[in-house]
Amino acid sequence: MRVNYWSASSSAIALTLAIPLFVVVANIFVPAGEVWQHLAETVLRDYVVNSLLLMLGVALLSLTLGVGTAWLVSMTEFPGRRMFEWALLLPMAIPAYIIAYTYTGMLDFAGPVQTTLRELTGWGYGDYWFPEIRSLEGAAIMLALVLYPYIYLLARAAFLSQSLCVLEVSRSLGNGPWRTFFSVGLPLARPAIAAGLSLVLMETLADYGTVQYFGVDTFTTGIFRTWYGLDNAPAAAQLAAILLLFVVVLVTLERYSRRQARYHDSGRRKSPLTRLPLRGWGRLGASLFCLATLLFGFLLPAGQLGLWAIDTYEEMIDQRFATLVFNTLKLAVLASLLALVTALLLNYARRLQPNRTVRFAVRAAGMGYAIPGTVIAVGVVIPFGWFDNTLDSWMREQFDISSGLLLSGTLAALLFAYLVRFLAVSLHAVESGLERITPSMDEAARAMGERPASILGRIHIPMLKGSLLTALLLVFVDVLKELPATLILRPFNFNTLAVRAYELAADERLADAASAALAIVIAGLIPVFLLSRSLSQSREEKK
Amino acid sequence: MKSELELKDVAVAYDGTTVIEGVSLSLKPGVIGSLLGPSGCGKTSLLRAIAGFEPLSCGEIHLNERLVSQPGNSVPTEQRRVGMVFQDFALFPHLSVAKNVAFGLKNMDARQRDARVNELLQLVGLGHLKDAHPHQLSGGQQQRIALTRAMAPRPDILLMDEPFSSLDTELREQLAREVRELLKRDGITAILVTHDQLEAFAMADVIGVVGEGQLHQWDTGYNIYHKPQNRFVADFIGQGVMLPGKVSEKLAIDTELGRIKGELPEGCKPGCEIELLLRPDDVLHDDESTLRLEVKEKAFRGAEYLYTLALPSGQPILCLVQSHHNHKVGERIGITLDVEDIALFPVR
Amino acid sequence: MSLLQRSASLLLVLGITFSTPVTAAAPELNLYSARKEALIQPLLERFTEQTEIKVNLVTGKADALLKRLSSEGRNSPADILLTTDAGRLHRAKAAGVTQPFNSESLNRLVPANYRDPEGHWVGLSVRSRPILYVKGKVDPSELSSYEALSDSRWKGRICIRSSSNIYNQSLTASLIAGNGKAETENWAKGLVANLARPPKGGDRDQIKAAAAGQCDIAIANTYYLAGMLNSNKADQVAAAEKMAVFWPNQGDRGAHVNVSGAAITRSSKNPETALKLIEFLASEASQQWYAEVNGEYPVRQGVAVGDTLKAWGEFKADSLNLGQLGELNGEAVMLMDRAGWR
Predict the structure, then answer these.
(1) Which residue of A351, A442, A448, A451 to mutate against B (max B Cβ within 10 Å)?
(2) How far apart are CA A39 and CA A228, in angstroms?
(3) For B159, which residue in chain A has the nearest alpha carbon?
(4) Which of B52, B90, B136 sits opposite A444 (nearest CB)?
(5) Which residues touch A484 (CB under 8 Å, ≥6 apart)?
(6) How many whole angstroms separate alpha carbon A127 and alpha carbon A123?
(7) Per residue in B110-144, pLDDT tens?
(8) pLDDT tens digit string along C121-169?
(9) Of C22, C58, C329, which has the smallest distance from its Cβ to A229's Cβ?
């Protein structure tokens, strides 16, 4: 039957995508020697505590920034609102480790800010207190500054689609605007905010560049220390499996928190949104809050990169640079399309046939987001290598032909890794869109003689345009920034902007890295612009 | 004459919990049926099973003399030739009115399709809204478009799930009348699911009362009102009271209101206790009557008053009286009985 | 449907074009390099110019490249693995993905302790990790050896990066080789107690922190200092100029060094050509290039070095066979964990 075909093929796709995770988890059964005792006695507690504190810090800060700005720009009117509406997405284009490097360059003891301060006051080391940027708190701030746009994006879409009626009901029951926000607006937008937050937390767990540079020992740095330093891959994979457990708990909590609620949008007429005009201090406060977010999340770091790039671009931008840009864009376009199609198929299969197998498979396929790219890449390298070599041996035995490596070391392997790593992003975006289409839409179309596949084409895709674009662009930006998997899996003579930026930055040549980093930011701006335009357009249409 | 729709001993279950079972019914072409019952009674599940959205756990469904559903086997909805109107209308927000209506029109060239869409839109009086989008329409207009869209491909049967429930009362009655006319004009077979008995009476030729997971009675409106087959139907439909009585030797019933004659249910022996359904319109006001009862409550209904009267034992009965007969609470008024069809039920 | 169909067909077409693997037909060499592109590509281009042998490059982290190599097995396209430390070369040998080679010229030019005794790898540039001190704040006569840095007189005066870094792991491994585990663990504890701040940042950060007054001593690889001195950034030059190099342990085993080096993979289809490239990288011109461009020391004697390196003078390097660093690496990490060196 047709429905079984959908569920079977989607389960197959999802389980294939989960292979790298299974490879990681399978290491649980490999004995890792006495390393565990050593880890437990020395560093494991730090890894756990630091990871949890980091998650907590990033969650609090990114929620404040993301939800706060989203509410202000979608529900109130203040000077600069129209500009902030799109500009607040910009920090998304900056890789976390790049913002970490730039802030360190600016704020470190040896950086221009503190040096100027010392020159002005004549203080020396130890004479004054200055916030230490390279610390757990600093890492949380850096991550929140570039990750809050995920929450902003989803929360804003949710606020914009809220019916004004329910908000007015609250006001008529005597609640002020603030109470209304906390008691009605926020709970209604909860699924979207939770989806955004889970993306942010997964990114936080997967981050390596920032915490490593800041000397914060988290689970991720522990994985690499155990693997590289102790040369104990099984123990490293076991740590990664524990990390996966964090994610399972996280995802389960998120699902559980909204298990009963269904958030369909009936497509009924809504009264057009009238923004609350702010006055006096509120007006100034709103502008300043948004401006500060934008300033610290984008203007300062991008400005610093720009200054560095002006110094070094002549050396750094050559013919090869064009190839870098082309390679990067090619990968980002391909990966985001691939992720979009996959996410659409999986989500749709789950909608058609919400049975346990499909649900499990889809969930497993979305786990990769929280796993550090290097771990994913190893999870890809091992099964691909095994497949290639097994096939090769078989071909040699049967036909005396060597098939060599068919998949390993190709862009296909790299794209597969991107898919594993970033599918969660497009799954979330598509899912939150699909949830808002009532099932009666599907049923109406089926009653008029449409098959599930053509309903997808005639109803869902056109209705989901906004969500699909979001999914596409989020993955696009993520791939632009992706580093570790690209490093390990890319073919010969194939570099991307992120690889170039990283190689220079890791060599502590920040200024030289600035051109490539800035190019990533600029490439990332294009989709960010598209995204914000489509968001405000969809609102216009509704009016 | 063949049946357009036939259900044989149908049961629907979700996750092992049966929501409705033992349903058998048939519908002749051109007949409008209604499934009437309180919310959560399983009537919507039954409709969705007919549409092919829910699998059967027992029984068979035939559409147009074709077996479409049985346990473990179900023709997909899109191959059943059913039309469906949803409670929330489910208009596609990204398509214009005309494109919504044309959605199910396949195997037609563009000209034929346009002609059909125009014809239907004219019919429901919305020809001028062709290019509008659903969110620009009023509730009543959306409802009419949803109906038009479902009728456009000329389905074998039209299934309507609470199609009027989101509209206001006045509009509801007007639309119900219009829709019935439209269906009758084209001779369309239809099933309407509703919890509103007036809507069912206004629309349907035959009504099924559904409650507690069963189809209690599949009958005309009149029979459901006056000859309910069980207490559930009697309670759910209309107003009335249960008057206790005793079967006398001559196979008539002795009640506080005197001896009432009528057909007794099977196995009813003289001397057994029984209850009789007394509708307000079975009790007539008659100033001449010697049977005078005290008015306990009264409710103004425009053309009528609904009086609640008390028998000497305290048993209340209801009486519908033209509203120029205005009596005070506490007054005694004369009544006579006019029971044409008696509905009797064993004592609980 | 159109969006879905279009993107699906686009993917299909592109997927087919990309899934064709890299196959080496003409005389080509494939290189897995832990040296960054900027620090190897120019030399490879020179090699291609001279020999018309094309060299394909993938850069990445050594352990990841090693994993890729071992997963690809006998079909791996790679001919050469380049790393930036001897420990990883040792690890590659232990993983069985390398093959021995024998080159008379390399045996002659490269000192034995920079080569694998069984000929599986060879060092190509020397990276020293001496003590750097702030001129005027520290009298060089106060300094003697790495061991002495655990003395409490240095309390709050030392900057060094995280123990997750391979250079520190190698340094500690060399101390274990010299003094044994127990003594080295005590040393590490003493050193941690003397740190001016929790370890963070890279080697340049330690130099900058010292120059800015946060500490008096920084432990860093010399080529970072060279890079700063030769930078076109005035602040970097100014910071670096405040620092001086002290070569420790000159009275005993010598200053700690590591090498960047190369191994030929077991899967290599043309090991002779691969050896040619390695010999090219050990040639006088290439060795000079390492010194000039990245401030690394030549692996062979008698190569002229630039003024920066010359100014720091000759030094005695630890003669430990560097393969040992790889063997002791795990132990060094556990020891640093226990000592609280983050």
Answers:
(1) A448
(2) 15
(3) A447
(4) B90
(5) A208, A372, A373, A374, A377, C64
(6) 6
(7) 999 999 999 999 988 899 999 998 888 888 899 88
(8) 999 999 999 999 999 999 999 999 999 999 999 999 999 999 988 999 9
(9) C329
